[in-house]
Design a protein that fits this description.
Layout (H helix, E strand, L loop, with lengths): L9 E16 L2 E13 L2 E5 L6 H8 L7 E6 L2 E2 L5 H8 L2 E4 L11 H12 L5 H14 L15 H13 L5 E5 L7 H18 L2 E5 L3 H7 L2 E6 L2 E6 L1 H5 L4 H10 L3
Helix pairs in contact: 3-4, 4-5, 5-6, 6-7
Adenosine-5'-triphosphate binds next to strand 2 and helix 1.
Length: about 260
């Protein structure tokens, strides 16, 4: 897959802007002045060692954690200035593919999708709900599983269902936390392809937190390397891969699975 051939929708428009972000837990300084922008239509991977603060960063973007200092602007709204209702409205414009986003195992695949839709958008007709569920399942290649229960699906299919559950709300931003973790190489490749399809079909802009270099290379226009609490290097995969920075070279040498 050749990511550099994808045309960004509007590379001039910034949809995520992170400025001078700090977060500590007691004595532990995790984020120490993080700056980052994501352009409209772009997929950006955040790479970093275990414990470097990737999940903390994505939780701040999702509004689940508050930073100690700094600003996050998403879709033109500054997170720190939003009232709870405004934050909820903003979050409806974002899709989350987190490991913790558990599926409802007691409900069918159809109900797993129709439930969040009808919870968030009132007064939809039965046909509108059916059409939306079918469109989201079609997008992730699970239309034939519509009457199954999630526990009957494989790990990769469950991941797809989780993504469909966010797509049903037509998100403008997608946040993926370790989308390929725990999957075999073939399933990883399928999820990577799906992430790119979502970007193209739904015109999303995304941040993808990952350890998986193949995922970063095949799904993202740019990579941001989180080391010692800041982004040491941001650029194309090749820019980052070919850097002389010792800590980045070490990260790539231990993670080289391409
Ligand atoms: N709520 C919390 N309270 C205290 N410490 C926390 C909390 N959340 C995260 N940390 C600490 O912050 C650091 C960064 O954690 P984080 O989960 O962001 O790492 P990560 O880069 O996502 O790692 P991994 O790749 O292993 O998932 C870790 O040392 C972690 O123990």
């Amino acid at each position: 897959m050749e990511k550099d051939k994808i045309q960004l929708i509007n590379p001039e428009e910034t949809v995520i802007k992170i400025e001078e972000l700090y977060k500590s837990f007691g004595e532990l300084e995790v984020l120490k002045g993080v700056d980052l922008t994501v352009q409209k239509g772009e997929n950006l991977a955040v790479l970093g060692r275990s414990g470097s603060g990737k999940s903390v960063l994505i939780k701040i973007l999702a509004g689940l954690l508050k930073p100690d200092r700094g600003n996050v602007t998403m879709l033109g709204k500054q997170l720190g200035q939003l009232q709870p209702k405004e934050l909820d409205e903003l979050r409806l414009r974002m899709g989350f593919s987190f490991q913790s986003s558990a599926l409802y195992d007691g409900m069918s695949v159809f109900d797993n999708l129709s439930f969040p839709l009808t919870m968030n958008i009132k007064h939809l007709s039965r046909k509108q709900v059916n059409d939306a569920v079918e469109e989201a399942l079609d997008a992730v290649g699970l239309i034939d599983k519509i009457e199954r229960n999630p526990e009957e699906l494989s790990g990769g299919q469950r991941k797809r269902l989780g993504i469909a559950r966010t797509l049903i709300m037509k998100p403008e931003i997608m946040l993926y936390d370790e989308p390929t973790a725990g999957l075999d190489p073939v399933t990883c490749a399928e999820i990577n392809a799906l992430i790119v399809e979502v970007q193209q079909q739904y015109k999303t802009s995304s941040i993808i937190i990952t350890h998986d270099l193949t995922c970063a290379k095949n799904t993202c226009e740019r990579i941001a390397m989180l080391i010692d609490g800041t982004f040491l290097k941001i650029g194309t995969f090749e820019d980052v891969f070919n850097t002389d920075e010792e800590q980045i070279k070490k990260f790539f040498s231990y993670n080289f699975t391409l």
